[in-house]
Design goal:
It holds the Pfam family DDE_3. The chain has 212 residues and is an alpha/beta fold. The protein is built from five helices and nine strands.
């Protein structure tokens, strides 16, 4: 008996079921200029859909792995941000990724760093520039700076690497019977990130520097 690398297939399963400041970003040198009272967060939203994503995997030779599906897909919507200095990952679940949800995430982020100036790097999505956000930006202009990335450049947003890691770990070649199971898998993954921030830093390409 041998093993070979196969891509699984799915089969039907019956049953129920603002004001900005210039900050060096992108090459790791920004950490050298990071003041003691400043924190840089890369932010983005993601929809985790249980599409039974298929990836090549090891299987007994001649036996292709099978992933069941009910034919409908659960979705969990998240807003997240990664601290590029500590590896801390902030995450908030929402029913809909809109400007109101983003406003709540901004407040949540500021609450996590009450004594810090938050520099948030993000894309140019409309929800990040909505009119309802302007009073909040004005009120917190001394504590919050937004750095908008160039259009169509998700590769520059470091948090995208965390979303990719999550999807790779949670939904690739896995079956979730319902949204509850999908959400539990996501929570388990997020707890793993909390326990191992150094893995987060490695994933986003930041080198863990010694204090010596």
């Amino acid at each position: 008996m041998g093993i070979s690398l196969y891509t699984p297939y799915v089969y039907p399963q019956t049953g129920q079921s603002t004001k900005t400041k210039r900050v060096s970003t992108g090459d790791g040198t920004h950490k050298k200029n990071l003041s003691d009272n400043m924190v840089i967060i890369y932010e983005d939203e993601s929809h985790i859909r249980d599409y039974q994503t298929l990836r090549a995997t090891w299987s007994v030779k001649g036996r292709q792995k099978q992933i069941p599906t009910y034919g409908h897909h659960a979705t969990v919507s998240l807003l997240g941000g990664v601290n590029i200095e500590t590896g801390e990952f902030l995450c908030m679940e929402t029913n809909q990724c809109n400007a109101q949800a983003f406003l709540q995430f901004l407040q949540y982020t500021l609450d996590q760093y009450p004594d810090k100036h938050v520099v948030m790097v993000l894309d140019n999505a409309k929800i990040h520039r909505a009119k309802i956000l302007q009073p909040f930006f004005h009120e917190h202009e001394e504590r919050l700076t937004l750095i908008f990335l160039p259009p169509y450049s998700p590769n520059l947003n470091l948090v995208e690497r965390i979303w990719g890691w999550l999807k790779e770990s949670v939904i690739a070649n896995r079956f979730h019977a319902n949204r509850k199971e999908l959400r539990e898998s996501i929570v388990s993954f997020l707890e793993h990130l909390t326990q191992f921030p150094e893995k987060v830093l490695q994933r986003i390409g930041q080198i863990v520097m010694s204090e010596n």
